[in-house]
Amino acid sequence: MCYDSHMENPDAILRKAGLMSAHVALFNRMNALRQMLFLAEVLDERQASAALVRAGNITTIGPSTQEEPSVTSHRGRTADAATCYSTLAELKGHVAEMYAVTTPELKALNAQAIEALKASDDLAAFAATLTKLDGDGADTARRSRTAPTPPATPAETPATAS
Description:
Layout: H1 10-21, H2 24-45, E1 50-53, E2 58-61, E3 66-68, E4 70-72, E5 78-80, H3 81-92, E6 99-101, H4 103-118, H5 121-145
Antiparallel strand pairs: 1-2, 1-6, 2-3, 4-5
Pfam families: DDRD
Region (Disordered): 134-162
InterPro entries: DDRD
């Protein structure tokens, strides 16, 4: 493997990745919320008035009504039905066969969810991990700058005749 000279060793990187794995639920949550914004983006692009979201498909209702298992914006951002459906169930606070949503509603639900995330223990724990990683990086850099130099090997002294 080739690493940049400024890159840490693989063991340190794996340790940091391990610390981040505790935050997978937060990352998944944030990804789900992003997909809600991608769905809103698709609605805007298609000039759709609303979307019907079911567990297996998304129907955009507008000039050209389309039903798909996932929708992709012109920028290549994808929102899949399963993620959008489960996220809407959580955000709306009830389970339904389908959810009808508009772009403004998707944006409002997302904004509320982001505010809740900002106040969450998950985000506080993530901040603590980042602080720890920043400290580890500073300690590593400090150790490498102040690492003791190996002791000099004494020059061999010529044997004296006795």
